[in-house]
Write a structure and sequence with these properties.
Strand order of the largest sheet of chain B: 4-2-5-1-6-7-8
CATH class of the largest domain in chain B: Alpha Beta
Helix content of chain B: 40-55%
CATH architecture of the largest domain in chain B: 3-Layer(aba) Sandwich
Number of strands of chain A: 5
CATH superfamily of the largest domain in chain B: P-loop containing nucleotide triphosphate hydrolases
Structural class of chain B: alpha/beta
Distance between the termini of chain B: 34 Å
Oligomer: heterodimer
Number of domains of chain A: 1
CATH topology of chain A: Rossmann fold
CATH class of chain A: Alpha Beta
Order of helices and strands of chain A: EHEHEHEHEH
Strand content of chain A: 15-25%
Largest sheet of chain B: 7 strands, parallel
Strand order of the largest sheet of chain A: 2-1-3-4-5
Number of helices of chain B: 11
Largest sheet of chain A: 5 strands, parallel
Number of strands of chain B: 8
Strand content of chain B: 5-15%
Number of domains of chain B: 2
Distance between the termini of chain A: 19 Å
Radius of gyration of chain A: 14 Å
Helix content of chain A: 40-55%
């Protein structure tokens, strides 16, 4: 059976604007991905734990509250601590350019800001996932 | 250390990887399942089914909370549909289980149906086996929102719960066959809504006709899952059912029947794989179709000839 791209989508923190992430979720679903949508008010701990349980290729976080410089680094840190840094972290929202650069340098895969088309995000994800996946010895 | 060794040591990431491996039916997955099979068989499996929006996820959430208070390790498999058009899926059952994500001993896995139409995903039973072998005491399986005939869940669990809401009332008559027959316990959720009492009494009447002396009497539990009402009673009924079927041999027979079904399924899948491969490699299907179209051959005789030439044993 073909291995599907699995992505966890979440909104961390208290920001309740979920229209954007729902648009992305639908677009990813229509692109043939398996989207695990966990909804609003997630803590970084919940996001990383859910990503582990779901064995996702990537986590997508939508942040429009301005808390991105806290939340993205924290999720990256937790992924490393739990040995799950094979999971690609990406995100979207209202994020100033200089912060985008800083976060991408820290290890965030890509941040999509207003104006991005869903096709761009889909193409990026397909490429990034196929590059990152590696075969592990099971038995 | 390979993934299986880490799995045996209780590593959650390894568990998750093995589930994917089995779910994707990656090369050698049968060997893996054969290896862990002896470790499984200890978990008690509860299936939760019912129409979309009946509250299955919320009930699973609350039940699991009660089970973890008793220090039980719980695995949850939540199934949502795959689009037959795009192959994609939106898996949203975790939204109702937020508090469980980081709870000790709880592991939740969302599965997309991936072409299966029985209410479960193609590999739900196998994933159940992996969770069982990992050491989960209880496994709760939540189906997609079902209509009347998606009944695979019976073959994957020990106790089956069918969840209705007061609005299901009018259709209960129509549900007499299928969904109505598989329940060990009925739940009428959102029972604070209008019509709940009527639905319960209608259900009770239907069940009453069916009841036989000495057999399990399927109870109806009224719940308001969101407000955590009635869940303790539901759990008590699950324990009662578990005790009942364990003591009078029903569970043993049920599991043996499941093994028979599994065997059949495993063999069929393997035969299908072999057949596809052999037929694709050694016969020109297009040419046969062409001949049939021209009236030089018929598909029944051609099918017979193809099958006779295929050697499945090798």
């Amino acid at each position: 059976m073909e291995r599907k791209i699995r992505i966890l989508l979440a909104k961390p923190g208290l920001d309740g604007h979920d229209r954007g992430i729902k648009v992305i979720a639908s677009a990813f679903r229509d692109a043939g991905f398996e989207v695990i949508y966990t909804g609003l008010r997630q803590t970084p701990e919940m996001i990383v734990e859910a990503a582990i349980q779901e064995d996702v290729d990537a986590i997508g976080m939508s942040i429009l509250s301005g808390a991105h410089m806290t939340l993205f680094p924290r999720v990256l840190q937790l992924l490393r601590e739990k040995g799950a840094d094979h999971v690609l972290l990406l995100g979207g929202g209202i994020i100033p350019k200089e912060d985008v650069e800083k976060l991408e340098k820290m290890g965030v895969g890509k941040l999509f800001t207003p104006g991005t088309t869903t096709t761009e995000a889909i193409e990026y994800l397909k490429k990034a996932v196929s590059e990152r996946r590696k075969e592990e010895k099971i038995l | 250390m390979n993934v299986l060794d880490r799995f045996y040591k209780g590593d959650k990431i390894a568990l998750s990887k093995l589930i994917s491996y089995v779910e994707n039916q990656s090369t050698g997955y049968r060997k893996l399942l054969a290896q862990i099979y002896p470790k499984a068989g200890r978990a008690y499996r509860v299936g939760m089914t019912g129409p979309p929006g009946a509250g299955k996820s919320t009930i699973v959430d609350k039940l699991t909370s009660l089970l973890t208070k008793e220090k039980k390790r719980v695995g949850i498999i939540a199934v949502d549909p795959t689009s037959p058009f795009t192959g994609g899926a939106l898996l949203g059952d975790r939204i109702r289980m937020q508090d469980l994500t980081t709870r000790d001993g709880v592991f939740i896995r969302s599965m997309a149906t991936r072409g299966s139409y029985g209410g479960l995903a193609t590999s739900t039973k196998e994933v159940c086996l992996v969770l069982d072998a990992f050491g989960k005491d209880w496994i709760l399986i939540e189906t997609v929102g079902v209509g009347q005939v998606e009944l695979d869940v019976v073959n994957a669990c020990d106790t089956t719960i069918v969840v209705f809401v007061p609005e299901s009332g009018d259709s209960i008559q129509a549900m007499k066959a299928g969904l109505m027959e598989i329940a060990d316990i009925f739940v009428v959720n959102k029972s604070d809504r209008e019509g709940a009492k009527r639905v319960i009494s209608e259900l009770d009447m239907i069940l009453d006709i069916r009841r036989k002396k000495g057999e399990w009497e399927c109870p109806i539990v009224s719940t308001e899952a969101l407000n955590n009402k009635g869940i303790d009673l539901l759990l008590a009924k699950i324990f009662e059912h578990k005790k009942f079927i364990s003591e009078n041999g029903v569970l043993e027979q049920h599991r043996k029947n499941q093994i028979k079904g599994d065997l059949k399924r495993i063999i069929e899948l393997k035969v299908k794989e072999l057949l596809d491969e052999k037929i694709l490699n050694s016969f020109d299907i297009d040419q046969i179709a062409e001949r049939v179209y021209k009236g030089e051959d018929d598909p029944y005789s051609a099918g017979e000839r193809v099958l006779n030439k295929v050697n499945l044993g090798k």
